[in-house]
Amino acid sequence: MQNANRFCFQKKFGFRQPNGSTFDRQIVVILGRTGVRIMTAFPSANANYCQGTAF
C-alpha cells in the first residue's frame, strides 16, 4: 500500500480477447518516493486499493 515513501495509482482498463469478448480489470501501480520508478504493478479485485484522491 502507499505510504510516505510510495505513490499509488489505480485505474480500470478494458481488455478485448481474440474471440471478441471484453473484460475489465483494476490495475494498481506503486511508484517509488520520487514518483519516477515503478516499484510494482498488479491487477486488484479491490476497487479502492489506493488511499487518497482518485484520479
Task: Write down the Rg.
Answer: 13 Å
Tertiary shape: elongated
Strand order of the largest sheet: 1-2-3
Beta strands, count: 3
Approximate strand percentage: over 45%
Q: Taking all residues together, what is the mean pLDDT?
A: 84
Overall structural class, as computed from helix and strand content, comes to mainly beta
**How many H/I helices?**
0
Query: What series of H and E elements makes up the topology?
Result: EEE
The helix content, as a percent range, equals under 10%
What gap, in angstroms, lies between the N and C termini? Answer: 17 Å
Biggest β-sheet, characterized? 3 strands, antiparallel
Low-confidence stretches: none
Essential attributes:
single chain; 55 residues; mainly beta; three-stranded antiparallel beta sheet; 3 strands
Summarize the structure.
By secondary structure, the chain is mainly beta. The chain has strands at residues 7-16, 22-31, 38-44. The protein has a domain at 1-25.
Write structural notes for this entry.
The chain has 55 residues and is an all-beta fold. It has a domain at 1-25. Helices cover 0% and strands 49% of the residues. It has no helices and 3 strands. Strands 1-2-3 form a 3-stranded antiparallel sheet, with no helix packed on it. Strand 1 (7-16) and strand 2 (22-31) form a beta hairpin. It is elongated. The mean pLDDT is 84.
Give the helix/strand layout:
Layout: E1 7-16, E2 22-31, E3 38-44
Antiparallel strand pairs: 1-2, 2-3
